[in-house]
Amino acid sequence: MNKIHLLPLRLYIFIFILLPGSLVLSQESKPCLSVEDYDSWHSLGQTSISPDGKWIAYSLDYVCGTDTLFIKQTQGDKTYEIPHGNRLAFTEDSKWAACLMGYSEAEREKMQEKKEEIRNKLVVICLADGEKKTIKDIQSFTFARNSIHLAMETYAGKDGRKDLIIRNLEQGTHLTLGNVSEWSFNKPGTHLACLMNTEGHRGNGAHLILLDNYRIHILDSDTVNYRQLSWDREGSSLVFLKSFTDTLFKDESHILFTLNDLNKPQSLNVLDQREMQSFPENMKICEHFTPRWSEDLSTVFFGIIEWEPAEKDSVNQGKKKTKKSPVWISGTGRTIRYNHGRKKTTTGIKIFRTCAHGIRKPVIPFV
């Protein structure tokens, strides 16, 4: 029994003797940090990986030094560096990468002292050989889904308008479109739709561009505003709004355009409330809700809102008679006549839908 009790005691004494010595050795082995060491510290910023998993991108932000974006092979030695790079994106086929390139803090201070506008550059990199292309004054960019085209949006000028530059990555060619207010690739990347709002409204319109040959189809043009461009989920059908005014009412209402066949851009379908007996009375199509397609493309959902009369005593005057002419509706393939009763005016935005049976009751109310 005594031997059993002595063993833990001896073990305790042995540890007690070694412990102070261990502390001394540990303290002597730790290096001392200097001010120079602090300057070399850095933190990990943006990280991303290419769709095929063969490239990884990461940014290192330094306390003192140049913040750098690195693009490195996961199974190889190739590494590309972009000083002050940010917002990197890869193409779907992982052959290209692009990022915005900013400036150092010192450069930004100098530009601010000179009252110069600070504008990013865009760097496009071919990952196979590392060839880089730098384009000035780019605010944002988007790759097409098919990895062939890159859309670059410039900064707005003094008039608030922007240019859109379309680059063919394989050929290195550019198409520049001026005064673009809205734009979007379709999902396959075969088409680009854009809305133009020019100075004086003389060149306003909706355009559809076939990207394999840059052929431009003018879907509609006028001296009014175009807005709320939207594709369906698969990128086969398009919808947008065109404004119009009525002297009996304040603000604008809108005509709704849809296109179901991209191979026939001239075959637009039109929903004009002035030609519809069943459109809710004293209401207008609202620009604050983007029209949406149903899954089967038979229905378009859009928002309507109360249309305020130009004068308080002109409410009755606003009940203007409308023609009973037929209207083409998206996805029906035939002419539809509206014969539903009118709706009373309400407040807030309500979402209606067009279909083969005319305008139906709201499906989602907003207040």
Number of distinct beta strands: 28
How would the global form be characterised? Answer: elongated
Oligomer: single chain
Distance between the termini: 86 Å
Count of the domains: 3
Percent of residues in beta strands: 35-45%
Mean residue pLDDT: 81
Query: What is the count of helical runs?
Result: 3
Helix content: 10-25%
Structural class: mainly beta
Tell me the major beta sheet. Answer: 6 strands, antiparallel
Word description of this protein:
By secondary structure, this protein is mainly β. Helix content is 11%, strand content 40%. The protein is built from three helices and 28 strands. Strands 21, 22, 23, 26, 27 and 28 form a six-stranded antiparallel beta sheet that branches. A four-stranded antiparallel beta sheet has the order 1-2-3-4, with no helix packed on it. Strands 5-6-7-8 form a four-stranded antiparallel beta sheet, with no helix packed on it. β18 and β19 form a beta hairpin.
Secondary-structure blueprint:
Blueprint: H1 2-29, H2 35-39, E1 42-49, E2 55-62, E3 68-73, E4 79-83, E5 85-90, E6 96-101, H3 105-113, E7 121-126, E8 132-135, E9 138-143, E10 149-154, E11 164-168, E12 173-177, E13 180-185, E14 191-196, E15 205-210, E16 215-221, E17 226-231, E18 238-244, E19 253-259, E20 269-271, E21 283-285, E22 292-293, E23 300-306, E24 327-328, E25 335-336, E26 349-355, E27 358-359, E28 364-365
Antiparallel strand pairs: 1-2, 2-3, 3-4, 5-6, 6-7, 7-8, 9-10, 10-11, 11-12, 13-14, 14-15, 15-16, 17-18, 18-19, 19-20, 21-23, 22-23, 23-26, 24-25, 26-27, 26-28
